[in-house]
Amino acid sequence: MSGAPAAGYVGADERPPARGLRWWAVLLVVIAVAGVAFAVGRFSAFGTSPAVPGDASPEAGFARDMQVHHTQAIEMAMTIYRKTDDEGVRTLAFDIATAQAGQRGEFFDWLVQWGLPQASTAPLMQWMAGLPEHSHGGGAERPSDDELRDEMGMATPAQLAELDSATGSAADCLFLGLMIRHHQGAIPMAQALVELGSDPRALQVAGGIVQTQSAEIDLMRSLQQQLGCEG
Asked: Where are the transmembrane segments (predicted)?
């Protein structure tokens, strides 16, 4: 029967697109919205990202000084690793060398990411002056570089030469004594960063150094007793 189409009837030219086409249309809209949201988020982050540590910050000073400190620890650890006959000392030396090499690389990377030079003209541990116990004053009162290195627990060139030439248990005992002193100099530096710093990753690493090196001091003292080291 001819006449007007029944209510609800859709002609062939007026039918909605196939289901597959509707799906792709929705998907494209979702992708477009997600892209806009991502771009907005990225541009918003540029204005709200936390400031990185500056050149005079505790984090920068710690990263520089601890690279120097770790470099000597690695040198001493590898010296004894190559010639010790004691498995406990050898294992400890390997652990110290590998762990501190990894940390030294991270400290280097921090400064790169922060856009800061690897070296500074500031004296060693100058960044710790914010703590009363590490404020050395100014002028003629300021310690020499050798005195500051001693405060950091660093071995002298003469001590390094002695370690290089020593053999047997004498070398093991000398290494343990030097490394205990070395760790005892690093722990206050890490504790100072925990008190003065604000960068989350730097604080995490500094806290880990305090825990790890404190435990290694206990282990080294145990090794000293086993080897019959004097002092």
From this structure: 21-40
d(CA 230, CA 138): 39
Q: What is the CATH number of the domain that holds 194?
A: 1.20.1260.10
116 domain residue, yes or no: yes
Domain membership of residue 19 (yes or no) is no
In angstroms, the Cα distances linking 186 to 91, 112, 151, 166 are 21, 23, 9, 25
80: in domain? yes
Residue 109 falls inside a structural domain: yes
Do 178 and 76 meet the contact criterion of CB atoms below 8 Å apart? yes
Ordered DSSP codes for 151-208: HTTPPPHHHHHHHHH--HHHHHHHHHHHHHHHHHHHHHHHHHHHHH---HHHHHHHHH
For residue 172, give its domain range.
Answer: 58-128+146-227
Give the range among 45-59, 83-97, 162-176 with minimum mean pLDDT: 45-59
pTM: 0.77
pLDDT per position as a tens digit, 180-212: 999 999 999 999 999 999 999 999 999 999 999
Number of domains forming the structure of the chain: 1
**From residue 179, how far is each of 10, 119, 120, 123, 143 by CA, in Å?**
88, 25, 26, 23, 23
Q: Taking a C-beta distance cutoff of 8 angstroms, is the pair 189, 151 a contact?
A: no
